[in-house]
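Batch 3, record 17
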Amino acid sequence: MDDKILKLKEEIENKLSDTVDLSELDKLRVSYLGKKGSITALLKGMKELAAEQKKAFGADVNKLKEFAAAKIEEKNNELKKKQVELEIKAMPKFDISSPAKCACGSYHPITLVQRQCETIFKSMGFTVEDYSEVVTDYECFESLNIPKHHPARDMQDTYYLENGQLLKSQTSAAQNAILRKYGPELIKNGTPIRAIFPGRCFRNEATDACHENTFFQMEGVMVDKNISISNLIYFMKTMLSEVFRKDINVRLRPGFFPFVEPGFELDISCLICGGEGCPSCKHSGWLELCPCGMIHPNVLREGGIDPDEYTGFAFGLGLTRLAMMKYEIKDIRDLNSGSLKALSQFTDDE
Amino acid sequence: MFLSMNWIEDFVDLSGIDKVELIHRFSLSTAEVENEIFFKGKDISGIVVAEIKSVEEHPKSKKLHLLKVDTGSGELTDVVCGAPNVRVGMKTAFAQLGAKIGEITIAPRELAGYTSYGMCCGESEIGISDDNSGIMEITDDVPLGTDIKSIYDVEDIIFEVDNKSLTNRPDLWGHYGIAREFAALAGRELKPLECTELSVYDNLPDVDMKIEDKLCKRYSTIKVENISRNISPVNIRIRLYYCGMRAINFLADLTNYLMLEMGQPMHAFDSRKVEKIRIKRFDAPFTFKTLDGVDRNIDENTLMICNGNTPVAIAGIMGGLDSEIVEDTTTLTLESANFDAVSIRKSTVRLSHRTDASMRYEKSLDPEMTIPAIGRFLFLLQKYDSGVKVVSRLTDEYAEKFPPVTLNFDQDFVDRYTGIKIDCDTIVNTLEGLGFKVALDNGNYTVDVPSWRITKDVTMNADIIEEITRIYGYDNFEVNTTLSPLYPVRMTAVKTNEEKIKDILVKKFNLHELHSYVWAYNDELKELGIETENNIKLANATNPNIETLRNSIIPTQLCQVKSNLSYAPEFGIFEIGRVVNGVDENNLCIENKKLAITLFSKTTNIKELYFRLRDILSFLSLDLKHTELTFSTAEPTHSYEHPVNLNKIILGSKEIGIMGIVHPVVNKNIDKKGNVVFAELDVDMFAESADKGITYNEPSKYPSMEYDLSLDIPAEIFYSDLKKCWDDEGKDILRNVSVIDTYDTETIHRITIRFEFSSNERTLSSAEVQEIIDNITANLSKINVTIPNYSS
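Prediction for the assembled complex:
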């Protein structure tokens, strides 16, 4: 083998072992294998050799070329690997435990509870209705079979306005309008009336930790042929179990409300003790939750529906009460306080 | 109302039945029973009748006496006693050694040097009255050594029914009505009331009585002389006490007893004071002293019982002081009457005086009850005071009867309403147990409603369902879902929009939802320098501060900003609520649902805050309607609006609200350093506006071209003016225009706009793009917008 070749091979080996970075290696590659590189130069110098020497020299130079290329590739891989290792080492350890920055708005707790209820009722085929806050005496009382001299009409309970209208004292004030809105379809096509109507109600009373003059209720009605007390119990039990996300027992007791007959007070098994008896249910195992009943024939009739042909049930859930139960809010006045310190805590709760 | 189980058992045999369980069933079937049930006298034992044989002064005490008492055993017991009423020969209640009174067991006890081997008891110590004036006096006829529990009804189960749950049951305001329910629940017979037969007095003269006012439905009366008894029998007093009333005197006690027994309020007049009963109202107001000694103002609407022309009682509420039964009363004129329920309730409210009688009358009592109540009263009077003499016939004026009610329905009706099968025997037994008369013919029921249920309670078929089902027991119901067909639930646009708005404001813009009141708070607004604007008012506001309904949520929110200043240096709040803006041509309130947003910041300058709010509103419109909002300058109409930068919010072509900056005066009153901006829009109008939806533009396969223009903009020119310069020049290839840079000094307002061109059909040529740009720059120069010359 030619001396030049041997020398060059030795030089390449030495230089490669001294190389520590990739740009140096690239320069090295160019200096041996580039167009003007020393190996390329050897090949160019071949034309001065005799023909018989050319073949052997050519083969030797090509071997050297392959050797150099392989060695450089090997070094290249080695340096790349080192570089990645260095990059990894260079990454600092971040403090994952530092406080997260997620600025967030908040919903009013009534919105959260109302949405939960609406979702459940929608899934059971109930439409969600909206209704005005200022209503007429007819809407709030007369259409609901509340006679002229019923105590519920007393000035001390209801906010009356100068023009004779009033601030609705119960969500039932929408019942007549809803019966009239969906009644024709019930009668014509047999589409049952299933509706809930959440809303704000007003009572003219002094406020304290347990009493507010402004609060939310959610009324529900279902009307069809053959709606029975048995159906009422089924719906209340099913829906309330969903609302409280546990299997709830319900019991009905007679309760008097002019717009239902029979009317009931509905109790649920105590959420704390499950019915065993504890201080929060006064050791009875039951919590009084909501009034309900079979819609009074006069109310159906007033809504344009023949009570001899159709029956229905209605119930009234206290959304404010539910929110207080769910979030353990002790003072009802917190809800309308407008206090962000209190209310900004209610982020989403689906 | 407290109820005595002993009393109930006078009228129905409940032997062999768990009483507590029955009370529980009553609570589920009839009316709500309070949780605590009282087992009276259970903790009393070993108290017997004893006679005081001797009384000596205690040498060391002025109060104490040394007694020897005889319990009939033949041996005398030494007792030290502090009661003032001890005397030789007196029979009293004696707690022997080993006797139990509540927690105490009687044992020998040293009292000032003498040992007492037992205790003489007062009524309050035994728990049968609140009389603690001395030891109990027991009548002579009782043998010594008798356990007092065997002569007196010390033991009883007392439970309390929530009065509110009896609102619609006038028949349940006495023990007899309650007993009827218990009989029906237990399936036992209700015993008839023992009454004196009144027809035997038919030959006696009438009481001079006349109803002169239609508010009196019925008045029954009878006159009795020769009354000698003054103190009621112990058992009557115990029952009154256990049921929450105090014993007064025999006649007063007996009227109260009758009221608690039958639910019929009664009044006993001293016949010396009342000879000519007239029931009427007076034309002019006057004051009247009731038997509790209070002077009350009587107006022309209050029905009065009079002796001739002199008022002696407020009808149905309370008797007068002058005619009440006193110590020496020996003759009485008994009132058993029925009055108009609404009139009694209104009088009660006017007088602010609710009594046990008025509470009952206002429930619409059964007028058929007045005569049996007199028969019952006489029966008890004659039983306990045998010398009494009836001196008048029963005098009764029945001015107005309730029409009888008969209901007809069939088995199918019951099945449909209940959703379960209740067989006809059960139905008939239940109704008959409650006093209904039932005829059943081939599945068809004809039911006569008893008089005590027709006054307000049972008047139609649906009412019968309640009677059947409550006694059947709701706990026994089979629970079934409906067979109604299912349909997709369609949500209203308002509802869906409202919920999405809330989500966007909370989750994207970090706003807080607050609630507030529907009225304006005058005082709080005044503090901010805002006058409450004229609007419809509450007619019966108890607080003048909150009598005017609000016409906007913004002032409320400004108050909320002020009260939350300590919460954070920067926050935003919103509310979806209702406001009223006067009345329409039919005098009905014009009510609107509004979304109000207020942003407050001490750290963001007013311009940035203003645009933050603008961007929130724009996002709502883009996200929910796929439509750009536009704004146009508005003139201020409210004191809290800054006259500059006040804008109408326009969606499509409709003005849906207003946004602006708070007036500097109000702003300073809220906070000197903070900036406040607000917006309010009509949620219904927003919801009604159609959502344009998404229109898909296929991305071009050909390269797009960008062209940037820097523009120097004179002060009076707005972006909306610039926009007009290219809106009609795009020739379908100007796809997007965006502001990529702004540069502001005191004199220069410069922005850089990037125009993006592309076509889906071809590669664009520079020439066609340049042509459009040239047109645009020409338009711009017409409004004095120039391209800066950087070389100069």
